[in-house]
Design goal:
This protein has 137 residues and is mainly α. Helix content is 79%, strand content 0%. α1 runs antiparallel to α2 and α5 crosses α6.
Length: 137
């Protein structure tokens, strides 16, 4: 079964564009805030899409669709490590991304948004790697 990653690719492109734009905007300007908001939302959407596609990628390792559907986000990544799709360091970073996303979802303060910015370089590398894993089933 081929898993369609086109939407994930588009999410990544949107995230990259927001990241590029925020780097050129003066901090504290409306443009900076607009790009930061876009970046945070793009990060959230890309993270969620990554989890959905990883669930599909892991499905063949489970006895039933229901058993894989019951996994939490972090459990998906634990399973990806158990099946040698991701290494331990990658899984640890994905946990950090998820924790950050949960924090930004509950508190859209400037500090959480700025913390998200510090994760983007690693996140982009990790999400591209995950996309490759999903594409090469």
């Amino acid at each position: 079964m081929t898993i369609n990653t086109e939407y994930l690719k588009r999410c990544i492109e949107t995230l990259e564009k927001s990241y590029t734009c925020i780097k050129s905007a003066p901090e504290g300007s409306i443009d900076y805030e607009m790009y930061r908001n876009s970046l945070v939302k793009s990060f959230e959407i890309t993270l969620e899409q990554s989890g959905k596609l990883l669930r599909k990628r892991l499905a063949p390792f489970f006895a039933s669709k229901k058993s894989v559907d019951m996994l939490t986000f972090k459990d998906l990544f634990r399973e990806a490590h158990k099946t040698a799709l991701l290494d331990e360091a990658e899984v640890s970073r994905w946990f950090k991304y998820r924790d950050n996303r949960n924090n930004t979802a509950h508190d859209y303060g400037k500090a959480f948004a700025e913390e998200t910015l510090t994760l983007i370089d690693d996140f982009l590398k990790d999400v591209y790697h995950l996309k490759d894993i999903i594409d090469n089933e």
